[in-house]
Amino acid sequence: MPSYDFDWVDAFTATKMAGNPCMVVYDAADIAVADRLRLVRETRLSECAFLIPSAKADFGVRYYLADREIPLAGHPTVATIASLVSRGLIDLSETPAHLTLEVGAGVIDIEVTGSVANPVVTMTQPAPVFGETSSAESIAQICGLPEGSIEGTPQIVSTGAGHCIAVVSSAAVLASAQLDPERLAAWQARLETTDAAHIEPFLVTLSGATPQGDTFARLMLPPPMPPEDPFTGSATGEMAAYLWHHGLIDAPSFQAEQGQLMGRPGQARVEVLGPRDAITGVRVGGPGVVLMRGTLDL
Questions:
Q1: Which of 219, 262, 260, 265 is nearest to 238 (CA)?
Q2: I need a labelling partner for 133 at 20 to 30 A (CA). Which of 88, 157, 257, 296 fits?
Q3: Which positions ≥6 away from 217 have C-beta within 8 Å?
């Protein structure tokens, strides 16, 4: 029976059992894709990370949802690097430490600050691709929101994954959102975007859940995934690019919050790189903490 070491890491938080949890599995190259998907469903997590060799970067990893691989994801990246730091596989004797990570979407740059006990991981997401727009009314219906509660024009933005960014009018409206999976599927079927069946709305309001925050967001998910994601790093980068590009924020650097309504608060420091009309990338960073580790027998 093959055995694999793993860490269970809470990402975008320095507090255990907050933020977004992720299982990081070591030396996982020989684990079949079907078994990777089964493990995600077994853990009931939104995603798991599987470390594999890389000829292009310092480390290689692949990320999986309950039903498919995802090419780029924020909280598994934070979890993976925090796990490697905790095991002494990344040297933090001098900070910031810089390294590269090969994910499904390619090689991304990583910066680590802080300490072994309290690492802060920042990933640089690629330049955003601004895609299809949707009516505010259609996104409001998908999310069970009243007419007029979404401001501006929702738009699909991708830095490797892709979400439809929609600005809602208040935190109270954001809290009231409820996903309608049938309306979501019908909307996805009308999209021309590649991989449209996996695009979900990412709702954000331009005020924090706490006084420290500048934005507050939610990502609700259809089956077989968990009903909601506590903190979504890739979507946070896409949201930041949308807000900066469309002139909805005054400064390109801010504090993003997500998960407070779930009792799993998470925070990220976000910085959009480049001018509004020529964004070159987005930096998304936050802490990660190992909750447990053990051996996986498959």
A1: 219
A2: 257
A3: 174, 202, 203, 204, 205, 232, 235, 236, 239, 256, 257, 258
For residue 138, is it left (φ>0), alpha (ψ between -120 and 50) or beta? alpha
Query: What values do phi and psi take at 242, rounded to 5?
Result: -60, -50
**Each residue's pLDDT tens digit, 254-266:** 999 999 999 999 9
Every domain of the chain and the residues it spans: 3-126+287-297, 129-279
The model's pTM: 0.96
Q: In this prediction, what percent of the chain has a pLDDT beyond 70?
A: 100
Predicted pLDDT of residue 193: 86
Name the burial class of residue 34, with classes exposed (0-12), middle (13-18) and buried (19+) by CB atoms within 10 angstroms of its CB: exposed
SS3 19: coil
| One fold for 3-126+287-297 and 129-279 | yes
CATH code for 129-279? 3.10.310.10
* Mean pLDDT within 212-230: 96
Could you tell me which CATH class the domain 3-126+287-297 is placed in?
alpha beta
pLDDT tens for residues 102-160? 999 999 999 999 999 999 999 999 999 999 999 999 999 999 999 999 999 999 999 98
Nearest one of 67, 3, 65 to 31, comparing CA atoms: 3
